[in-house]
Design goal:
The chain is α/β, with parallel strands linked by helices and 244 residues long. The protein folds into 2 domains: 1-30 and 78-118 and 166-244, Rossmann fold (3-Layer(aba) Sandwich), CATH 3.40.50; 32-75 and 121-159, SIR2/SIRT2 'Small Domain', CATH 3.30.1600. It has helices at 3-14, 40-43, 46-49, 52-57, 59-74, 80-90, 105-109, 137-140, 168-180, 199-205, 219-223, 233-242, and strands spanning 17-21, 94-99, 114-116, 119-126, 132-134, 155-159, 183-187, 209-213, 227-229. The protein starts with a helix and ends with a helix. Bound molecules: 2'-O-acetyl adenosine-5-diphosphoribose and zinc ion.
Length: 244
């Protein structure tokens, strides 16, 4: 029996699946990952562009990077991997998606219980009064940077910058699902950003079977992964689904 069939059988038998996703699942949606190759952090130093202090000190500079990222997100659509996860939910096996991604593509693909650990770039939030405004091509083109229509302060994507905490509700929801799941799919994450990277270890220590999908090895691969599919998410996930 091949590993695709083994994992499909495991999913059927155990029932409660949670997916933990990172930038790799959106690569086939046209959004480059952060690290390696065309990654955003190869071009922009995250401490200079993605730290909350950098944003407060110089929103104009940071919005040069944010404008580029906004355009990529606005132009993207779900990959075969996002759609496979929404199918897995429809079939009743997948109970939650915990994502580090801020592109909103899991929602767009049709998943309902999505925990956006690092926020959602499709919304902008005012640094002073917290008013939220949807991301649009018009608002991101405002120079030198988008401002709140109510109080004129700088708008920032509603995502977690370095130096900021994870929203409490997302931490609680993610821990709850990590504890409940019987099978965890780790998909397209380098596993180097904490506290997010702790989540799969929580599931493993609660007895979950860990299934990892990534073209590269990660810190999870040799430590906790029970199955490792060395490939892209859009290639591997539909193959598992076919066997269900
Ligand atoms: P990374 O860019 O660190 O890692 C992307 C991972 O996806 C790598 O392990 C790649 O090997 C893998 N990958 C590439 N193409 C793939 C494909 N087609 N299918 C499956 N996997 C593929 O991205 P994250 O791990 O998500 O934080 O990064 C974690 C956090 O660091 C992000 O949420 C972001 C960033 O700074 C914030 O925005 C707060
Ligand atoms: Zn405001």
């Amino acid at each position: 029996m091949d590993d695709y069939q083994k994992v499909a059988d495991l999913v059927k038998e155990k029932g409660y699946v949670v997916a933990f996703t990172g930038a790799g699942i959106s690569v086939d949606s046209g959004i480059p990952a952060f690290r390696g190759g065309q990654g955003l952090w190869e071009k922009y130093d995250p401490m200079e562009y993605a730290h909350i202090r950098a944003f407060s000190n110089n929103p104009e500079k940071v919005w040069v990077m944010l404008r580029e990222m906004s355009q990529v997100i606005l132009d993207s659509s779900p990959s075969p991997a996002h759609l496979a996860l929404s199918e897995l939910q429809r079939k009743g096996y997948l109970k939650a998606v915990i994502t580090q991604n801020v592109d909103g593509l899991h929602h767009i693909a049709g998943n309902s219980n999505v925990i956006e650990y690092h926020g959602n770039h499709r919304w902008l939030i005012c640094m002073s009064c917290s008013k939220r405004t949807p991301l649009s091509p018009e608002i991101v083109s405002v120079q030198p940077y988008p401002r709140c229509e109510k109080c004129n302060s700088a708008l920032k994507p509603d995502v977690v910058f370095f130096g900021e905490g994870i929203p409490m509700l997302e931490v609680i929801r993610a821990n709850d699902e990590a504890n409940k799941c019987k099978v965890m799919f780790i998909i397209g994450t380098s596993g180097v950003v904490y506290p997010a990277a702790e989540i799969p270890y929580t599931s493993k220590s609660n007895g979950a079977t860990i299934v990892e999908i990534n073209p590269e090895n990660t810190p999870f691969t040799s430590s906790i992964s029970d199955y490792f599919f060395k490939g892209t998410a859009s290639d591997v996930l539909p193959k598992i689904l076919e066997k269900l």
